[in-house]
Amino acid sequence: MIDTDAQLAYSIFWAAYAIAFVVFFYMMKRLTRFLPLYGLRTLLLAALVALLLTPVESQIFENWWIPAWLFAGYEMILGNADAAGRALFNLGLAGLVMLLVWLLDLVRYRLVSR
User: Which spans are transmembrane here (predicted)?
Assistant: First the structure.
């Protein structure tokens, strides 16, 4: 069972991670505004969201979620290919969902810009 200190640290981590992501996303949005194509700008931002916000459940603790890129990298270093594959599967699935969202956004942009 997880004690309250560990649960508090887990909550603080996710709060700090969310705040850092919002700041990083805003900075990347400002940086990519110089790209001439709307589709390229939004594709880069969608890839950023899929890469950094995809979670995977911890194998050790129940109901604890970890960023998939962090979990996959750590498990690859340790040589645990099954766990890394699970995290990479989550990343691939999130990438497909964001690709669908990106395509729908391009359709919306095309319809609005006419």
Answer: 6-26, 38-56, 87-107
pLDDT, mean of residues 44-52: 94
For 57, the 3-state DSSP assignment is: strand
12: left (phi over 0), alpha (psi -120 to 50) or beta: alpha
Alpha carbon distance 25, 67 (integer Å): 16
Instruction: Assign 83 to helix, strand or coil.
Output: helix
Q: What φ, ψ does residue 64 adopt, rounded to 5°?
A: -110, 125
Report d(CA 6, CA 12) in Å as an integer.
10
Whether the CB-CB separation of 68 and 55 falls below 8 Å is answered with yes
pLDDT per residue as tens digits for the range 74-91? 999 999 999 999 999 999
The share of the chain scoring above pLDDT 70, in percent, equals 99
Domain boundaries, the chain: 4-113
Looking only at the bridges linking them, the beta strands covering 55-57 and 65-67 are antiparallel
pTM: 0.83
